[in-house]
């Protein structure tokens, strides 16, 4: 299936995998903080992180199972990759300030 996928979808997939890694780090920190402080805010952040992990896994699954939807549209492929890259940048900063 990867042979029929465009380069931009492979880039989007790589960004989604990196996003999952950032989100796993964040979620572990937020769960630890919830256990320490019992704050509803940290519980909400942990649920948010878990939901975003699921969303990124679904995106990767979708890229591989439905990649043919993007094959004829390099513009759509590039847009999807750009959105994943923006998410990666946001998560990188959030992970940095949260882990600090």
TrEMBL record:
Entry keyword set: Membrane, Transmembrane, Transmembrane helix
Q: Where are the transmembrane segments?
A: 6-31, 43-64, 76-97
Keyword Transmembrane helix belongs to the record: yes
Domain of life, per lineage: Archaea
Q: Which InterPro entries match?
A: DUF8036 (IPR058349)
Please give the Pfam families that the UniProt record associates with this protein. Answer: DUF8036
- What is this protein's record name? Uncharacterized protein
Q: Which organism is it from?
A: Natronomonas aquatica
């Amino acid at each position: 299936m990867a042979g029929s996928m465009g380069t931009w979808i492979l880039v989007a997939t790589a960004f989604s995998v990196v996003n999952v890694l950032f989100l796993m780090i964040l979620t572990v920190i937020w769960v630890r903080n919830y256990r320490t402080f019992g704050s509803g805010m940290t519980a909400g952040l942990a649920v948010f992180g878990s939901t975003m992990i699921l969303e990124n896994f679904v995106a990767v699954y979708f890229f591989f199972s439905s990649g043919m939807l993007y094959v004829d549209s390099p513009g759509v492929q590039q847009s999807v990759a750009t959105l994943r890259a923006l998410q990666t940048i946001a998560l990188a900063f959030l992970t940095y300030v949260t882990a600090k």
